[in-house]
Design goal:
Number of helices: 5
Strand content: 35-45%
Distance between the termini: 71 Å
Largest sheet: 9 strands, mixed
CATH superfamily of the largest domain: Exo-inulinase, domain 1
Number of strands: 42
CATH topology of the largest domain: Jelly Rolls
Radius of gyration: 30 Å
Helix content: under 10%
Number of domains: 5
CATH class of the largest domain: Mainly Beta
Length: 674
């Protein structure tokens, strides 16, 4: 067993207090015996020991001596082993050190978590997953994470050295520091060892041995006066962004804290908040929301938060926890890059308020790089041509979001995917132009290519509207009412459902042209760097839309279906950019004018009426919901009142997109085959 060393002068105050510890090397137990029967400190999640949830002593591997314990699982859900080791209490002050030796079997992974409360299943403090590829991910489940590597099929020592006073959770592999994590749940009571390997690229196979298992908690004796900085938030983002830090302090003294100063220092700039008139009890937290901003800069640079003048004293009785430092390395956006989040939502969906809250927050935090589109389902704001394919991508799970059409995720994860995508250089930068004549809005989406591309790149045009209100059907179901499900942007203060009169909806998708998958043949098959291509759209404006609240969005969709880049503008901004009429590089115009197609739905045949056509080339293209062409025909030049019969008897039941090209104008409609 390695000797456990403790660091930090602050803990000298606590060395005479009672500490809690365990050192276990399994050598005293019979091979094949269950740990829950061997030791009262070893338990299972359900409390039933000596069975499938428990772990057995093994002689197949050992880092020292001849024995260890073994965990194995082969399902996505993990288990059935699920072992709990209680730490003798729930700790949120003092120093805690956990250490054990791991042997992760080749081709398999490992997992454990720390539980925050003495009753398991209430609070997860920390997750540690070791993936079969050698990646180790430490996270608190709320966005703070640390990624490193571990040796495969080799014994190694994993140490977590945790200063609970300053909220610094340091990970060491074989004694070498891998980084420090601040934790949203700065408390721990037990470890849950669980064979699980489904996240972060895991292959659902888990197999690992543990040996030399130990922990040690050294308590902290509170001095009379001590203010500590424990958590810094609100400082993530992208370079050049202005952010307002949020800093959490804690009273780690026996006297109440009534006043203090808090200073944030970053890149030579200091911002200060002077807090007075408080009565912060011993061990209580207080959150300071700064009213001034700091500007994030590119590169790795320290940001510190320092508490001073506690209760007007120049220094408190423990200076070690007065300052907390983070290294910030803001994301640097690729030039011209915008990231699109399409959110599946509905007024009937009780958890959908969180999608609205996070979409609004992203728009506020990243106004120059984020495009939000709320795709409604089953309510008066639903638009079938958008909602139907969106529902397929999110597997009908509401609320869900897709960022640049990556795999669906909970709206809480939008920012993570956004920060991953914002650094990816786009193939082209999009500019939106527009002009209005009567009730027709002509839109130009111009793509300036910085890179050569080949393949079926496509353009789609979306109209969204902010500030949408309404009557029947606009009341929002709200699972957050009453606060029982936590704080959610003020929805916890509203009833369930929220009356329509109190609801205002933003980012509402009104239309997408020509379809979810974009316009076929938007570009030549090969596009050279430096070239410019423009696609025109004609949009019949709905009189119910507030034109001062609409956004015109162009989507550049790559051949895999992902969104490469986007451009967005308000109607005023698009008109100021100017509408680019057909010319060199312009492929065609796309219209949302309704086709006269009957019967629809149909089973055997439908007829498309074009009205009067005067010497125009006419063609029809029919695509399934995935964008695959199922039928197309070039009719040549036609004149007169044109009716085009379409046989559908050989088509599978489902929804199809019909593009009818007359001259240089494309009209689009849905066809339902029963």
């Amino acid at each position: 067993m390695k000797k456990l060393y403790l660091f930090g002068a602050a803990f000298a105050l606590g060395l005479n207090a009672h500490s809690q510890s365990m050192n276990e090397n399994f050598e005293a137990y019979t091979a094949g015996s269950y740990m829950g029967n061997n030791s009262a400190a070893w338990d299972t999640w359900s409390g039933t020991v000596g069975g499938t949830e428990d772990t057995q002593v093994s002689t197949a591997q050992a880092s020292d001596g001849t024995k260890s314990i073994y965990f194995v699982g082969s399902t996505a859900g993990g288990g059935p082993q699920d072992v709990i080791v209680n730490f003798g209490g729930a700790y949120n002050t003092g120093q805690f050190q956990f250490e054990t030796n791991f042997y992760v079997v080749s081709g398999k992974g490992a997992y454990f978590n720390f539980q925050g409360n003495t009753t398991v299943g209430q609070v997860w403090s920390l997750n540690c997953q070791m993936v079969q590829n050698g990646n180790l991910i430490l996270d608190d489940g709320a966005g703070n994470s640390l990624t490193t590597t571990f040796p495969i099929a080799t014994w190694f020592t994993l140490t977590l050295d945790i200063n609970l006073n300053t909220n610094e959770w340091e990970l060491l592999i074989d004694g070498v520091s891998q980084g420090v994590l601040q934790n949203t749940v700065n408390q721990l009571a037990s470890i849950d060892i669980f064979p699980f390997n489904a996240n972060n690229g895991g292959n659902n196979l888990s197999g690992f041995y543990l040996d030399e298992f130990s922990y040690l908690h050294t308590p902290y004796v509170l001095p009379a006066l001590n203010g500590a900085v424990t958590y810094i938030d609100g400082v993530s983002g992208i370079a050049t962004q202005d952010v307002m830090p949020t800093v959490k302090i804690r009273n780690l003294g026996t006297n109440p804290i009534t006043s203090f100063d808090l200073t944030v220092d970053y890149n030579g700039t200091q911002i200060v908040e002077n807090i007075t008139g408080q009565n912060i009890a011993p061990l209580a937290y207080y959150t300071v929301n700064f009213t001034n901003t700091i500007t994030l800069i590119a590169g790795s640079n320290p940001l510190s938060a320092t508490i001073s003048n506690v209760n007007s004293f120049s220094a408190d009785m423990d200076p070690v926890d007065d300052i907390k430092t983070l290294n910030l390395d803001p994301v640097v956006p690729a030039p011209g890059k915008m990231v699109v989040a399409e959110e599946g939502t509905g007024t009937w969906c009780q958890w959908c308020p969180k999608g609205a809250v996070f979409m609004d927050q992203m728009t506020t935090d990243y106004p120059d790089h984020f495009v939000g589109i709320a795709v409604h389902n089953g309510d008066p704001m639903s638009f079938a041509d958008y909602n139907d394919p969106m529902g397929v991508l999110i597997s009908g799970s509401y609320p869900s979001a897709i960022v640049d059409r990556l795999p669906a995720l909970d709206p809480l994860g939008i920012e993570t995917d956004f920060l991953d995508r914002i650094i990816v250089a786009p193939k082209a930068v999009l500019t939106i132009g527009a002009e209005q004549n009567a009730n027709i809005l002509s839109v130009s989406v111009t793509s300036d290519f910085d890179f050569a591309v080949t393949g079926d790149y496509r353009i789609a045009c979306v109209i969204t509207e902010d500030g949408v209100t309404g009557g029947a059907g606009y009341a929002q179901s709200n699972a957050y009412a009453g606060g029982g499900s936590g704080v959610m942007g003020g929805y916890e203060l509203l009833p369930n459902p929220v009356p329509a009169a109190q609801m205002v909806y933003d980012h509402v998708a009104r239309i997408i042209l020509p379809s979810f998958d974009g316009q076929v043949n938007s570009f030549p098959s090969s596009v050279t760097p430096g070239s410019t291509h423009t696609l025109n759209f004609q949009i019949t404006l709905d009189p119910s839309w507030d034109l001062s609240e609409i956004h015109i969005i162009g989507l550049l969709i790559d051949p895999t279906g992902k969104i490469d880049n986007a451009g967005t503008a308000t109607k005023v901004e698009a008109e100021a950019n100017g509408y680019i009429e057909a010319g060199v590089g312009i492929i065609e115009s796309v219209s949302n004018s309704s086709l006269n197609m009957y019967p629809n739905p149909t089973s055997d045949m439908t007829t498309i009426n074009l009205g009067v056509v005067e010497n125009e080339l006419v063609s029809i293209q029919i695509l399934d919901i995935n964008g695959k062409i199922v039928a197309q025909k070039l009719y040549g030049e036609l004149s007169g009142d044109i009716n085009l019969p379409i046989t559908t008897s050989m088509m599978e039941s489902g929804v199809y997109i019909v593009h009818v090209t007359v001259g240089d104008v494309v009209s689009t409609s849905r066809l339902v085959v029963e």
